[in-house]
Amino acid sequence: MTDYKELSYFIKKNIDINDEDLKIVLSYFKSINKNKNDILLPKGKNSQVSYFVVKGCLRLFYIDEEGKDITRYIAFENQFATELVSFITNQPAEESIQVIENSELLYITHRDFRHLIKTIPKWKDFYNIYLEKAYVNNSKRLISFTTLNALERYEQLFDVNPEIVKRLPNKVVASYINISHETLSRIKSKFLLKNEIS
Fold it and tell me: What sections of 15-95 are H helices per DSSP?
């Protein structure tokens, strides 16, 4: 049985919520196990679920007009993942959600999420914090793509989120920082050489 301890800790870390309200919030989350490479949300389907990663890893990705696979977001343990635009607008998703490692997840439906916003005031606070963090992360990523070269992007990723580099296949890492697999191989060699010298 999935342990709700990590989700409970994550919520309490973000908002000041009493035990009674927290218990109500947790009661709306269900557990599910998914295998590596499973697609949780295909492009074109409405995003009606938000996932919390207890164990494993999820990614949000899309295919650009040139047919290139672009990873926009990666969620490891103790992080939420959903196709947020579709979740908010109830329109078909432009991105897909894929399981990268065998994963243990908790999920809440869009309907239950909205119900909690109406009935538990603190949950609305939690949602606002979640939206703000998502906006900040997206803005930082967009800026890095226009101001940093490929090596600088890799170095920034290694500094800010080394887990991505250490745990995930090169193919996913390359698509996350928007470079080719070959470019990533060259960059990793330069990065290792640079760090050996220093």
Answer: 19-27, 84-89
Supply 37's token pair: 């490479």
In angstroms, rounded to a whole number, what is the distance separating the alpha carbons of residues 198 and 196?
6
Q: Does position 195 have pLDDT exceeding 90, yes or no?
A: no
- Encoding tokens for residue 175? 């698509």
- pTM here? 0.90
Tell which residue, 136, 127, 128, has the closest CA to residue 108.
127
In degrees and rounded to multiples of 5, residue 119 shows phi and psi of -105, -25
Average pLDDT over the chain, rounded to whole?
Answer: 91
Residue 198 reports pLDDT greater than 50: no
- CB burial of 166-194 (b: ≥16 within 10 Å; e: otherwise) equals eebeeebbbbbbbbeeeebeebbeebeee
Q: Strand (E) positions, the chain?
A: 30-34, 39-41, 49-63, 69-75, 80-81, 96-109
Rounded to an integer, what distance in angstroms lies between the CA atom of residue 153 and that of residue 151? 5
